[in-house]
Amino acid sequence: MTAATMTLTVGKLAEEVGVSSDAIRHWEREGLFPAPERSAAGYRRYGADALDRARFIRACQRAGLRLADIADLLAVRDTGSCPCEPAGQHLERRIGEITAEIVRLEGLRSQLTDMLRAVDAGTCDPPLPENWCPPNSAVGGECK
C-alpha cells in the first residue's frame, strides 16, 4: 500500500501514534482533525495526512502544549506555512510553567532533605499534622 492509498482505522492510527483510539476521537471532537471519510459500515478511515497530523499533535502534547495551542499551530500549518514562528508565544508560556515547576520541586527537595537530615540526626520535630501525621490524627504530639 502506498502513502497515497493508505487507509487506517482509528485503532491503527492510534497505535501508530502511540495514543488511544479515544484520544483520536477526542482530537476530532475538539476540531484538531477534520471529519474522516467513513467506510460503508461507518468506520472512520484515515489517510497518510491524518497520520502526519496525529504525529504533530502528539509531539506538541509531549512538549506540554495545550489543545488550544495545538489548534492555533495547526491552523497556521494548514495554510502551508511553518508554524514555528507562531509557536514562540506558546513555547515561552510553557517554559515559564516548567520554570515554576522546577522552583516548586527544588523547594520540595530542600524540605525533604532537611527532614531526612533530622531523621538521621535523631532531631526530628514532634509529629505534627502538617508534616508527618495524617490530617486530624495528632494527639499530644503523637500520631494516632
Describe the overall structure:
The chain has 144 residues and is mostly helical. The protein has 2 domains: 1-82, Multidrug-efflux Transporter Regulator, Chain: A, Domain 2 (Orthogonal Bundle), CATH 1.10.1660; 87-144. 56% of the residues lie in helices and 6% in strands. The protein has helices at residues 10-17, 21-29, 48-62, 67-77, 84-121; strands at residues 37-38, 44-45, 138-139, 142-143. The strands form 2 sheets. It has a two-stranded antiparallel ribbon.
Q: Kindly state the number of beta strands.
A: 4
**Beta-strand content estimate:** 5-15%
Contiguous helical run count: 5
CATH architecture of the largest domain: Orthogonal Bundle
CATH fold name of the largest domain, please?
Multidrug-efflux Transporter Regulator, Chain: A, Domain 2
* Class per helix and strand makeup: mainly alpha
Q: What overall geometry do the principal axes of the alpha carbons give?
A: elongated
